[in-house]
Amino acid sequence: MELDKKPDMRILMLEDTASDAELEEHELRKIDVPFTLKRVETRDDFIRALEEFSPDIILSDYNLPEFSGMEALEIVRSTHPEIPVIMVTGALTDIEAVGLIHAGAKDYVLKDRLARLGAAVQRVLSMEQGIRARKAAEKSLRESEAKFRALVESTSDWIWELDEHGKFTYSSPQVHALLGYVAEDVIGKSPFDLMTPEEARRLEEPIATIMSERNHFHLLENANLHKDGRVVFLEASGVPMFDSLGTYKGYRGIDRDITERKEAEKERRANAEKVEQILLQTIAAIAATVEARDPYTAGHERRVAVLAAAIAREMGLPEETVHGIALAASIHDLGKIRVPAEILSKPGKLNPIEYELVKVHSQTGYDIIKDVQFSLPIAQMVLQHHERLDGSGYPQGLKDGQILLEAKILAVADVVEAMLSHRPYRPGLGAEAALEEITRQRGVFFDPVVVDSCIALFKDKKFEFESGQFAQHGSVYFH
């Protein structure tokens, strides 16, 4: 494959003496740089060659019969100032030499010293290339800065820079639209000066840590005070800045207005809380209906909810999960609404058919609430609260890894409360018997961690259903 050849250097020579031109060309050949040379003698030919030949450099005689080197310089300066000119002359006074340089010549060479012509051409071309490269870089930089400035000033986001002390050194004009200040107002201030006092205290330590470790940060929410006093929520992202020696110089970043989003989130939370309150009230009404059909188990679901929530907290589960467990426990026997009342209140032992009818209540409860949109799997908890680790439970015969942790907690709380309470067919058996039962079935029917947590509540923390912090915590969920 043939490589592209670098084009020859184009030299335009203004010289009326052929022998002098030959001597100059001879010296130029010594620099070992390929070139194409065009010689002209008159003004018209010179002007035409400037346009058609497009020289890289001009070698001009100082004195010609009808044209002078000084005139040639003036033409080049006015029409092609980017082309360097070297004057080649027989004699030149110091005053004339200074005049040539002032007029725009890059150098001059006396004809009796043509040996330095090649070096002069190379030096001038090298210098011009450096100048052109610098100008091109400066032009590119100016264009980039102009584009960046246009981008910064057209975006709705606020662009800023902080110095190493956390003070603003630059602010885009958008700070006025966001916070009501002109850019000059924030220079020298810190981000904390613009925040609400509470927000400044909340973020002081986290931001100090970020900056001390020179970390990037992304989507950091912060509440700021508008100049008119209202709160504006912003979302900030930033990166550390370093100079060419790697010295930390501060941060550059961007803030975006998220006030509308925060207000929408607040409204959604308020609506969700209203819906939840209505849902809880509905659930409480349904639970009361179930209890009314079975007076012997009145309060059972509420007490199971209190105990289940206490076990979940003892296990260190998140409060949202505790809330969900308490909610599921408060309706875990919802399906009994379809069990005949005479079976629920039967004083003797249930026969196999009656027992099968009672067992359906888990599935029935699930079917009633499965389409309600809870944030946690409440319906599955209700469905699984009679499942056992060894697969002997109902309605699906699930085993350990298939049962929700929340349902495992409900199972233990349900059994313990049932054994503590009076039933039509027996009196309450007491806490000792209840704890002995879950201990005996630990790892067989019931989850070991859940069992241990329940036992710790009763033995170490003296748990009681109707008094103390656990009862109070439980009542939060049922109004």
Task: Describe the 3D structure.
The protein is an alpha/beta fold and 479 residues long. It has 3 domains: 9-134, 3-Layer(aba) Sandwich (Rossmann fold), CATH 3.40.50; 155-257, 2-Layer Sandwich (Beta-Lactamase); 264-475, Hypothetical protein af1432 (Orthogonal Bundle). It is 51% helix and 14% strand. It has a 5-stranded parallel sheet, sandwiched between helices. α11 runs antiparallel to α12, α12 (319-329) crosses α17 and α18 runs antiparallel to α19. It is rod-shaped and about 140 Å long.
SSE layout and pairing:
Elements: E1 9-14, H1 18-29, E2 35-40, H2 43-52, E3 57-61, H3 69-79, E4 85-89, H4 94-103, E5 107-110, H5 117-154, E6 158-162, E7 168-171, H6 175-179, H7 183-186, H8 191-194, H9 197-212, E8 217-225, E9 231-242, E10 248-257, H10 259-293, H11 300-314, H12 319-329, H13 341-344, H14 352-359, H15 361-369, H16 378-384, H17 405-420, H18 431-440, H19 448-459, H20 468-475
Parallel strand pairs: 1-2, 1-3, 3-4, 4-5
Antiparallel strand pairs: 6-7, 6-10, 8-9, 9-10
Helix pairs in contact: 11-12, 11-17, 11-19, 11-20, 12-16, 12-17, 15-16, 16-17, 17-18, 18-19
Total number of β-strand segments? 10
Per the CATH scheme, the topology name of the largest domain is Hypothetical protein af1432
CA-atom Rg in angstroms: 45 Å
CATH superfamily of the largest domain: Hypothetical protein af1432
CATH class of the largest domain: Mainly Alpha
In which order are the strands of the major sheet placed?
2-1-3-4-5
